């Protein structure tokens, strides 16, 4: 029988430095990340409510999510719409802008990069959207529209179920050029310029061909990193909705799975159920990660 | 042999000083690109510009009707108000300042070091379980952190870390984002042949890591510095882990100023602007060295 790779004495010895390098991070990872995640997954099979000893209830939390919880369905629908729009839009614009500024003078590059990243960098500046979309006639947008005669009465942008979804969508897109974008900027800087030279000699004619045949195939690993970060932010929307449109939003119009899970954890103390909701979200993200890996295969092999 | 190397270096140098071979670039395309960038940038800049302008407005302009976008009589009163509010705190203001910077800088240094160390084996070595660990690190990025807050708190408490700097720094270090980022850059920009050559020359793995791997992925760790600094700075010393006033960070002061009612609207904007300064300074510093790397490193 053949032993799995890396288990023979010789290979173990050769790999010692690698284990040494990995060990400090891996220890912290196990203690502060892996154990809490596993604990949350285990809790999803119980009825833990912070007070009584938890009982194992099997899959009943999951059954409840899909059979008995109408609000979850609203949250699911909203989360999918947010994810399907903000994920790809954020990813594409991040890449396109990073690529376009790559050839520009350094000052322009730094400036544009700063602007694109500033919303993420500056923590909670997003609250200025609240002033812009303020509901009374002193709100900036309302005032502008009234002055130009488009509307006569102020629109309650953040509480009217007709508008607040759109408003949060804009804010989330505005926030979505973060981690992925910067990794693209850095990735493009790390490319080997000699490939471009060779490609120019091989007769590539324009920037689109260069992008497709030279840049993208070399950027594969960074594209995958950007995709993971985009998935993790596009599906985990909710924080900014809560801050802008309140909780719960009118008719749950901007409710999301994250908010649903937090609601059960923070307000109702049904930790088992809350964990089950977050495991469902986790599985959705894994699924989209698998699909995206397939889609990007062309550039990553 | 050495003449060939010298010649090669020279070609390379010339090449770099010319920046990039120019392919034909259509004028229409260039104009289109500029318009597109202008549009995206103004969308991105609008709220930021607005909050800076707001912080410079005197109170009567903030509440002016109809609301104005631009500031007519710019003043630093809001910033002065913030300063005077920080004068009479229980704990000296400098203590909060120190706490924030200490936690942020220590955490950033540890995060970047530990993440790069862990990334090298995962990018370039094959050992039992390496594939699984790679996948595991990606999966945990997809698990929403909020749900793990309670188990995490229990662990921090069990280890006796509550109410110390470690309660903030250690849990942050367990995020796999940094390892994943460094790993992807190592996969993309370090050819296996370079590593093999160094091994044949008798270099130890630690030396290879320090002298070949780290310099080649400078753009990656410069970027990681931005991420870690921003996260730790904005998270501050989170309330659930820190009780002692003299261990709290700037966030505690700033949020108490911001929640002081209507009269402090201007001060709240000034606070937001002030809190942006350190991460933006780090950003500009790291970003310009990201963009310099290509012209300076001969290594590829």
If you had to describe this structure to a student in words, what would you say it looks like?
The complex is a heterodimer of chains A (301) and B (300). Chain A is an all-alpha fold. Chain A contains 15 helices and no strands. In chain A, helix 3 packs antiparallel against helix 11 and helix 4 packs antiparallel against helix 8. The longest helix of chain A has 35 residues. Chain A is flat, with a radius of gyration of 24 Å. The two termini of chain B are 20 Å apart. The N terminus and C terminus of chain B are likely disordered.
Please outline what is shown here.
With 301 residues, chain A is mainly α. Chain A has helices at 9-43, 60-67, 70-101, 106-121, 128-132, 140-147, 164-174, 179-189, 194-201, 207-218, 220-235, 239-245, 257-267, 271-295, 297-300. The model of chain B is unreliable at 1-21 and 294-300 (pLDDT under 50).
Please describe the topology of this protein.
The complex is a heterodimer of chains A (301) and B (300).
Chain A: H1 9-43, H2 60-67, H3 70-101, H4 106-121, H5 128-132, H6 140-147, H7 164-174, H8 179-189, H9 194-201, H10 207-218, H11 220-235, H12 239-245, H13 257-267, H14 271-295, H15 297-300
Helix pairs in contact in A: 1-14, 3-7, 3-8, 3-11, 3-13, 4-8, 7-12, 8-11, 9-10, 11-14, 13-14
Chain B: H1 2-17, H2 27-55, H3 59-62, H4 77-85, H5 93-124, H6 130-141, H7 149-158, H8 166-173, H9 177-189, H10 192-200, H11 205-216, H12 218-235, H13 250-258, H14 265-296
């Amino acid at each position: 029988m053949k032993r799995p790779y890396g288990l023979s004495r010789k290979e173990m010895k050769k790999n010692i430095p690698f284990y040494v390098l990995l060990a400090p991070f891996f220890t912290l990872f196990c203690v502060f990340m892996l154990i809490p995640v596993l604990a949350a997954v285990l809790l999803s099979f119980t009825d833990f409510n912070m007070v009584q000893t938890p009982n194992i209830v099997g899959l009943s939390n999951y059954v409840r999510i899909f059979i008995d919880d109408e609000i979850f369905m609203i949250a699911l629908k909203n989360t999918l719409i947010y994810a399907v729009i903000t994920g790809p839009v954020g990813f594409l614009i991040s890449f396109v802008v990073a690529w376009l500024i790559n050839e520009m003078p350094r000052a322009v590059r730094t400036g544009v990069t700063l602007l694109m990243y500033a919303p993420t960098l500056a923590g909670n500046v997003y609250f200025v959207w609240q002033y812009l979309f303020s509901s009374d006639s002193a709100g900036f947008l309302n005032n502008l529209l009234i002055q130009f005669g488009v509307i006569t009465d102020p629109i309650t942008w953040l509480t009217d179920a007709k508008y607040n979804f759109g408003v949060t969508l804009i804010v989330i897109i505005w926030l979505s050029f973060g981690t992925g974008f910067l990794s693209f900027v850095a990735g493009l800087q790390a490319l080997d310029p000699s490939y471009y030279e060779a490609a120019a000699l091989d007769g590539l004619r324009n920037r689109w061909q260069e992008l497709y045949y030279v840049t993208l195939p070399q950027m594969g690993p960074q594209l995958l990193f950007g995709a993971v970060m985009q998935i993790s932010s596009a599906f985990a929307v909710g924080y900014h909705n809560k801050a802008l449109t309140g909780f719960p939003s009118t008719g749950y119009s901007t409710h999301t799975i994250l908010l649903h899970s937090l609601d059960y954890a923070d307000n109702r103390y049904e930790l088992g159920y809350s964990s089950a909701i977050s495991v469902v979200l986790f599985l959705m993200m894994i699924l989209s990660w698998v699909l995206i890996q397939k889609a990007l295969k062309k550039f990553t092999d | 042999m050495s003449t060939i190397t010298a010649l090669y270096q020279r070609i390379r140098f010339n090449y770099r000083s010319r920046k990039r071979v120019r392919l034909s670039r259509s004028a229409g395309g260039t104009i289109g690109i500029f318009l597109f960038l202008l549009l995206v940038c103004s969308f991105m800049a609008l709220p930021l510009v607005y909050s800076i302008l707001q912080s410079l407005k005197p109170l009567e302009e903030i509440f002016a009707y109809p609301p104005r976008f631009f500031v007519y009589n710019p003043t630093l009163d809001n910033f002065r108000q913030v300063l005077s509010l920080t004068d009479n705190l229980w704990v000296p203001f400098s203590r909060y300042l120190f706490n924030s910077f200490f936690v942020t800088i220590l955490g950033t240094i540890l995060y970047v070091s530990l993440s790069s160390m862990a990334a090298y084996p995962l990018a370039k070595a094959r050992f039992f379980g390496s594939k699984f660990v790679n996948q595991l690190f990606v999966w945990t990025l997809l698990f929403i952190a909020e749900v793990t807050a309670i188990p995490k708190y229990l662990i921090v408490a069990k280890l006796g870390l509550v109410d110390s700097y470690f309660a903030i720094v250690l849990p942050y270090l367990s995020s796999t984002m940094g390892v994943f980022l460094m790993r992807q850059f190592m996969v993309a920009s370090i050819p296996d042949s370079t590593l093999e050559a160094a091994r044949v020359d008798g270099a130890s793995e630690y030396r290879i890591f320090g002298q070949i791997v780290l310099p080649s992925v400078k753009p990656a760790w410069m970027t990681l510095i931005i991420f870690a600094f921003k996260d730790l700075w904005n998270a501050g010393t989170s309330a659930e882990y820190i009780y002692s006033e003299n261990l709290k960070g700037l966030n505690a002061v700033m949020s108490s100023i911001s929640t002081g009612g209507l009269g402090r609207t201007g001060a709240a904007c000034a606070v937001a602007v002030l809190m942006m300064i350190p991460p933006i300074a780090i950003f500009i510093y790291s970003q310009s060295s990201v963009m310099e790397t290509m012209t300076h490193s001969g290594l590829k």
